[in-house]
Amino acid sequence: MEDNVYQIPIGGKWTLEDLYVFPRAYEQCYFAYLALSVPDALQDPDDRIVHAFEAFPWQGGYSAVGFYNQLKWAVPRRRRPRVTRISYSSPGIIELGGLAVSVAVIIEKVVHVLGNAAKGASQSYSATYRDMQKRKLLRIKTENEIRRLTTTDQRVIKEHAEELTGILNVDLELLNERTGSPYKSLKILLSLFRRVRSLALFQRSGKLRLK
């Protein structure tokens, strides 16, 4: 995996909250796409990666926090994105080093897709979430509950996951391989969607100026 420098063009007026929200969302997206887009990016799939994709029940916010932290810790510090320069003007840049540019480009493309098709993408997310809620699939807490899912529920989960992977540019086969569970895959996709959507809001407000 080649490390390089990647520049994120910015504009508009940033707040202190923006400087917290954006780096956190970007970093979490980066580590998720790194694990799912570059097969050998994380070197050997050590216990931390296996744990991140398999172990969390994805019930409540704790699972999401643990998942993204686990992925981050699995990446050697020298390969984690780091800020090398910030120029705050109109336009300005946030320059990152130590990252896989190919992964940064994937994030850029997905943010564009979500920004340009914001209404349709948000409707897909909302429809998925409402359906999961209606079927009481958001309350699952144990592996036994996942194994007892009906054939209909399994089919619905698969269909929703396929729709979201189309929006998020994620390899569903690889994701299912890592999680070992289409249900967990869908919960991860819902979580990743929220984080990409957060970046897309920066783009639509003019605070990001991705080409």
Secondary structure blueprint with pairings:
Elements: E1 3-10, H1 18-37, H2 47-54, H3 61-74, E2 82-87, E3 92-100, H4 101-116, H5 118-134, H6 143-147, H7 151-168, H8 172-179, H9 182-204
Antiparallel strand pairs: 1-3, 2-3
Helix pairs in contact: 1-3, 1-4, 1-9, 2-3, 4-9, 5-7, 5-9, 7-9
Description:
The structure is a single chain. This protein is 61% helix and 11% strand. It has a three-stranded antiparallel β-sheet with strand order 1-3-2. A hairpin with a 4-residue loop joins strand 2 and strand 3. The two termini are 24 Å apart.
Short characterization:
With 211 residues, the protein is mainly alpha-helical.
Q: What's the helical proportion of residues?
A: 55-70%
> How many helices in DSSP terms?
9
Catalogue the unreliable spans.
none
Q: Give the oligomeric state.
A: single chain
Structure keywords:
mainly alpha; 3-stranded antiparallel sheet; 9 helices; 211 residues
